Amino acid sequence: MQTIADRLNSAQKGIDQAANNAHRPPKSVKLLAVSKTKPVSDIIEAYEAGQRRFGENYVQEGVEKVQELSHLENIEWHMIGPIQSNKTKVVAEHFDWVQSVDREKIARRLSEQRPESMPPLNVCIQVNIDDEDSKSGVALSELDALVTFIESQERLILRGLMAIPKANPSKEQQRASLTQLKELFDHYHTSLSNFDTLSVGMSSDMGEAIQHGSTMVRIGTAIFGKRN
Ligand SMILES: *Cc1c(COP(=O)(O)O)cnc(C)c1O
Predict the structure, then answer these.
(1) Which of 9, 39, 169, 214 is deepest in the core (most CB within 10 A)?
(2) Residues of 82-116 as b/e, b for ≥16 C-beta within 10 angstroms?
């Protein structure tokens, strides 16, 4: 049976291969291990295999894991799921990154509630790239205003964009969405100094995402196995 360490290793090899195919340096794509619904023992196994960056979707579950694993040095926690405004405080108090910011209200509260004792919170704006009713994320028409707003928030550092493209797209549609995302990223990357992250690509579409400039892939199933 494959261990978590084996699967992490394969995922990393897959990233390096995809980066190589895209003529990009392997270190230009970071791996976020998405541990939602998985026990802390799995996270420890991945940590011991060298993984430091972990993503969680659900606030309550994520906060519990952050607290339970606070003894692990240099571990980096990313919130990647939707956040209700009554949950911003615990998120601001426990996470290093929030990738799922999609409106002013959430951004303002995260900034106000980020403890003074912690460094500023890294955030990405989640973009609803395929304009799906079912998806969180800011509409493209409102992206510019949200970028400006977050840049004005004292306790936030705007790091980039996050997106979850449509599931099972045609090849053309997938390419069009990823291309548009990359163009948006490049636009802000040239003018904002900390804007260095394009978080796109999961277990099933990692190769295409890296081909289109992803700097961070979020991998769950391929590392931790299927979720119940
Ligand atoms: C669950 C999840 C992932 C990981 O998906 P896999 O298909 O298991 O790799 C990535 N990003 C987000 C936002 C998720 O919710």
Answers:
(1) 214
(2) bbeeebbebbbebbbbbbbbbbeebbbbbbeebee
Ligand 1 atom closest to the CA of 227, numbered from 1:
8
Q: What is the pLDDT confidence band of residue 135, given thresholds at 50, 70 and 90?
A: confident
Q: At what angle do helices 40-48 and 4-21 cross, to 10 degrees?
A: 60
How many Å is the Cα radius of gyration of the chain?
A: 17
Ligand 1 centroid vs 13 CA: distance in angstroms?
19
Residue bearing tokens 């295999």? 49
- How confident is the model over 2-47, as pLDDT tens digits? 999 999 999 999 999 999 999 999 899 999 999 999 999 999 999 9
What the chain holds in terms of domains, given with CATH numbers, is: 4-223 (3.20.20.10)
Q: State pTM to two decimals.
A: 0.97
Q: Point out which residues pair with 217 in neighbouring strands.
A: 31
What confidence tens digit (pLDDT) does each residue in 70-113 have? 999 999 999 999 999 999 999 999 999 999 999 999 999 999 99
Q: How far is CA 106 from the centre of its chain?
A: 17
> Is there an atom of ligand 1 within 6 Å of 194 CB?
no
For residue 228, name the pLDDT band (cuts at 50, 70, 90): confident
Q: How far apart are CA 98 and CA 173, in angstroms?
A: 27
